[in-house]
Design a protein that fits this description.
104 residues, alpha+beta, YaeB-like fold, four-stranded mixed beta sheet, 3 helices, 4 strands, globular
Amino acid sequence: MNGYEFHPEARADLEEIWEFIRADSLDAADRVIGEILEAIRALVPFPDQGHRRPDLTSGPLRFILVREYLVAYAPDEKPRRVIAVIHGRRSPRVMAAILRSRGQ
C-alpha cells in the first residue's frame, strides 16, 4: 500500500498530461509525471502541507503545485485521495467545475 489513491478521473488526468508532454519528449513526460507522483507520496505523512483554495471549493480539499500542475487532494482521507491534477493556467471557473463533477 502506498498511502494514496486516485479518483478514476485523476488517473486519467495524469495519462492526458503524459500524452500531451510525450508529443514533444518522452523523457520530459516521464520526468513530469515522476515529479507529480513524488509530490503526492510526500503528502502521505504530512497531508496538511498543501493550501486551501476557497475560490475553487468550499470542501476540505488541499492543493499543491507541481510545476504548472495543481494537485487537488483530500487530506483527511486514508489513504489520501487525489481528486484531480489540473493545469494551473486553466480558468478557476473550469477548475471549480471539474472538482464539482468529481463530488468535491
